[in-house]
User: Fold these one by one.
Assistant:
Number 1:
Amino acid sequence: GQDDDVVVGSPFTMREGLVAQKMIADCINTVVLRTSLAGNPTGSELLARVNQTTNSALAHSRLPFQRLVKELQPHRARDHNPVFQVLFGVDLPVERIEATGIEVADYFVDPGRSQLDLSLYLRETPTGLQGDLYFNSDIFDRDTAARLVDYYVRILDALVDDLNLPIGDIG
């Protein structure tokens, strides 16, 4: 059921179409990724579910998030986002643009705070992935947020070691 589902928002850069390709700035839309953890899937099974969910969401990524919210008409409350409370973003290396007299570089924009319960942004650096976690301080304190990050890293390490390990068995 829905109690076994994890719902995450993820920013997606849309550069489709001739007009968007000629634009310098990114066109970003938030896609909603809902994945079921029912049945205590193995890491491999979970990756397959996430892959299917992501492909399905990206196939509909042109639907503006605001329109999705309007169509779904979820219960609204002032203290949380109506569709998801966690944002997960990954900044991948961008295609280099050659232009005379213009210098182009990747630049991470620090949002400064989380508009959701949790927002995790990862980006590739020469030394590996670097991340920033933003959290709602009305819900989490710094120590709790740090424990969440440690647990996330432990889950990833366990799955790298053994994709056949059931998710619920990771401690």
Note: The longest strand covers residues 5-13.
Number 2:
Amino acid sequence: MEAITTEVLVLGAGPGGYAAAFYAADQGKKVILVEKESRLGGVCLNRGCIPSKALLHATHMVAAARESAERGIVFSSPTIDIDTLRSWKNSVIDKLSSGVSALAKGRGVDVMTGRGHFESPNTLRLETSEGQRFIEFENAIIAVGSRPVVPKPWNLGNPRVMTSTEALEVESIPENLLIVGGGYIGMELGTVYAALGSAVVV
């Protein structure tokens, strides 16, 4: 199969990758944006900042209702429908990811889905669901993002040991939750689960 050619190849469609792709396209370059996931937006949009902020927004109402008692406004205890909460959070992700796709299309950025492997300084082999494709490029931007890792002693295959990815799915509300890591995602998830009723230790 004949190789596809482009001026700029961007590997990874997170906030760094798609912003770079859009900028290059705005400068008149022919751009191919490669992403292994079906949705654009990377970790931030799909498994990080955005779902975390959506859950924070939803659970803020629970905390605000509890605190309003100090001001003489008392609400009954909320009923938490986990499935509806999770579906709403996913709908926010879908809407924003669709927005990124629309921006790519509007700028003439060619989006390809698959896992990229560099074959040479100017060739990328793309593994797609339909087979292999080859992309020849003049310049490449690598913006593949990050992924959570469970330390080996804790990687026991136990569903009670979660990364932030699993915690964002909110399958259940644990009675007690230990969060290892006090960065923004740990603190945001701790706040969400505490509002939902978990006893949280960071």
Note: The longest strand covers residues 131-142.
Number 3:
Amino acid sequence: RSVGVVQVRVEETIGHYAEWLRVPARDIRRLNRLRYGQPLRLNQKIKVPLHKTAKNEFESRRLAYHDGLADDFFRRYQVASTTIYTVKKGDKIWKLANRDFNVPVWLIKRFNIEIDFSALPPARKLIIPVVRQRPSATQMAST
């Protein structure tokens, strides 16, 4: 059987992999010795079975999913500006994105493509997008 290896990206689950590969999620869990309900970690390497779906088809579905997330986000929000943040000891990308800056992890990654987020060293400078909600059609009509 053909097996590939993927690195877990933001918002991905075993359920997504199973759907994109057209295999039961239990097959992926078994292949990786993961218990039911065990969450995936960002950047974790996962083996995926490629016996029902070609690698390029899997990657195409994966890319379409992430493009859809971005499209949904940008329908509602826009990047108004950016700010520079200096990483402190113990900072994790998920906490910075969700608790401190209230932006998706993938958006911070887009602004910092050269950075390895699995190990954020203190004093590292990050570009943080500042977003604002797009005005709705009714808000625009009333102005």
Note: The chain has a mean pLDDT of 93.
